[in-house]
What we know:
By secondary structure, this protein is α/β, with parallel strands linked by helices. Helices cover 22% and strands 22% of the residues. Strands 4-3-2-1-13-14 form a six-stranded mixed β-sheet, with helices on one face. It has a six-stranded mixed β-sheet with strand order 5-6-7-10-12-11, covered by helices on one side. Strands 15-16-17 form a three-stranded parallel β-sheet, with helices on one face. β11 (213-217) and β12 (220-224) form a beta hairpin. The longest helix is centred in the first third of the chain and has 19 residues, at 31-49. The model is unreliable at 316-348 and 359-370 (pLDDT under 50).
Amino acid sequence: MLIGNISDLHYGKDQAQSYIWTEPPYEGHNSRLVWTDIACRKALDIMVERGVDFAICEGDSAHPKGKIDIVVEGFLSRFVHMAIEKIPNWVKVVGNHGAGELAGEHIAKSVWVQKGISVISTPTEIRLDKQQQGLRLCVLPYQGDSDKIADALKRFRASHKKGDRTILVMHDGIKGGVVGTDEGYRLEDGFDGEGGLFDFAEFVLAGHYHRHQVFEAGGAPCCYIGSPLQRDFGDWGTERGLVLFDTKKMHVEFVPVTEVPRFFQFKLTSTDDLKELPDLSQHYAWFRLMSETVDVERVKEIATLAPAQITYDFEAIETETRLAISAGSTLEQMIPSYVDFASGQDVEPELIERRKAAGVDYVRRSGVRL
């Protein structure tokens, strides 16, 4: 059996970091929402081409905010409808974006249930078809609490029967997972599976961290599916896509989703570094000037080809408040995007004015709402 896995779709996330789509069939819609939809459709097409028998969404399929909820629900509903037309057998795992009636997982659950798909909101065991006798999924939706996770795993272990081949499917943090860019860091929090709590499973398929990866934890190999597309500059240098899982071989295959926007970071030490840049017309770019010798006007000219930002990383800037500004935008236009580095709160307009009076145009990005 071949199981297709997608996770952390986050329909509706990153709405501020976007432009309005002007081409059919998406005209008038937010571009980040559109690109999420395109990436998910591409992932679905790959599953169909590869002959997937059973599919799982490992959580967080929606991430709406406020008045865009209806729009997000419409996009997600259309995707789910297409998904079950092409692959009839699906399971949806509840993720962590789920508090309140307008929260992402509430909307996601209603959409998936309306389409006749099982939504797993409590620890659940699923025995797959008779031809795969002994093959079972132990599905653990988001718990956010190590004790609850441990209790559920112990119950799964207790229900293990001789000859069972178990796949643990979950949405939660696992200690040792890596987040961030290709310079990413390994997390020390999350559930650590101490004492081999995963060892009843032959494989763990997980959602929650957006970076695809495979590592050992709790006595079993663990695979984070990852999101189907990059979300921000924290994702640069890493692939995004879907995972195909072969139950006979107990083997994962990562398949990247291509031809969707990516985030690029360029550390410029001289103007010569600008000679071999990729085509940026559909992508996001962050130009980090590491030297005063870089031709800033040339950088600004190139930055007009893409949603971009320029930062002077060689300048000394106080750590309490670091600001960011997009290339080509005036300071007044960008005021809503400034945030305080320490508190995460909006920076007071008076502070913006003081910096403007001091001649600050572009400064280091950190904590900006994208």
